[in-house]
Amino acid sequence: MKHLLPALPYDITALEPHIDAQTMALHHGKHHAGYVANLNAALEALPELRERPATWLLRNLTQVPAAARETVRNNAGGHVNHSMFWRAMSASSGGAPAGPLAEALRRDFGGVGKFRAEFDAAGAKLFGSGWVWLAKTRGDAGRLVVLTTAGHDNPLMLDMTPILVNDLWEHAYYLQHQNRRLAYLEGWWSVVNWREAERLFAAGDAATDTSRVDAGGTLLAV
Asked: How does pLDDT run across 33-68, given as a tens digit for each residue?
């Protein structure tokens, strides 16, 4: 099984003016494509792992031979995180969450506005490259938390369910925003796909149990 670069779920111009077309083209067609190619190359010598979903590889890194572990971690993470990131945005979204996710945000953060402020603050403070997440802890009593990860690590590796993600690598925003990461973070809410976040929240722990990314970039349970 070859890991595949998912198609963007919208045109590269669709998120303007918040994310420019040049950034989208380079980000998806060069950076994400590179992670997919490097992951497939790393697995060529590991036939026992070729059929494993990228999400499984992240959750079971101890089963990856030590010589290939860092390469698999970085590139499987880059593939999974970017696949989720594209679907975390939509040209027809923005607005606010609804239903159980909105209720959980009120319970755990005091409301959507307070959650957004905490999310932006965490993203602005992260030193170096990484990601900022809304994630759910495991189990029936799971709570929503904001966390950041370095490199291409993912809350799956901490046994959490990722709900929403923003990319903090400079290639995600530097052509348009230069060093103004906070401006990028604040503008990003205009294109957030709350329906996708609601879907992942509703799926709960099932979204992380032996999950995979399909050809369209959707995180699925199998």
From this structure: 999 999 999 999 999 999 999 999 999 999 999 999
For residues 185 and 173, the answer to whether their CB atoms sit within 8 Å is no
Phi, psi for residue 186 in degrees, rounded to 5: -70, -40
Interatomic CA distance for residues 140 and 82, integer angstroms: 28
Query: Cis peptide before 53, with omega less than 30 degrees from 0?
Result: no
Residue 140, C-beta contacts closer than 8 angstroms, at least 6 positions apart: none
Take residue 152 and report the two structure tokens written for it. 């291409």
CA angle, 8 as apex, 49 and 175 as ends, to 5°? 105
Residues facing 163 on adjacent strands = none
pTM value is: 0.91
